[in-house]
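Format notes (please read before filing issues)

Several people have asked whether sequences and structure tokens are stored in separate files. They are not. Every record keeps both together, in the order shown below: the sequence lines, then the token lines. Line labels are part of the format and must not be stripped during preprocessing.
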Amino acid sequence: PGDWPGMVSSLRRDQRLGLSLFRRSERLGRAVMARPVARTLRSEAGTIRLLNRLLRSPLDHDLVKSHAADFWAGAQEAFRQGPAAYVSEARTWADELSFDLASVRTAVALWHGEEDRLIPVSHSQRLAERLPNARLHVIANEAHLHPPHVLADIASDLVAPPKAASTTP
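Then the structure lines:
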């Protein structure tokens, strides 16, 4: 949550600037994002350049390069209806949580690359500390994006997630 002390300040300057803008006005955020989104939808090469500029990790760059068509297809689908969902998600992240994390009884698995240059691993660590049934998997030698072998491990958590703690005495 963006309202936790240090969460926003731990982001890169460009991310903090965008978040500040999106917080002020959803309409302005959509207008600012319209051009980069349009460029992303225009070409695979443009999408790859934008992802590499955003992610800034050689590990992520290698993964994007080896799966460029997949990332382009994903970007096209993500932005098919424009930037509104992206801006809305950023605004939601920046807002105060509407519930107490300690009340979450469902088992939660968090996966975070230790070399992530987009979102610091400290964000997932703090979240795991506050969720009573969380398991944090910090993935060595991985960044923001995860290759197929890691996605298979994540999928195994979806198929057979850990059991939540019992709420009965």
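For reference, the curators noted about this record: The beta strands are 108-113, 134-139. The first strand starts at residue 108 and ends at 113.
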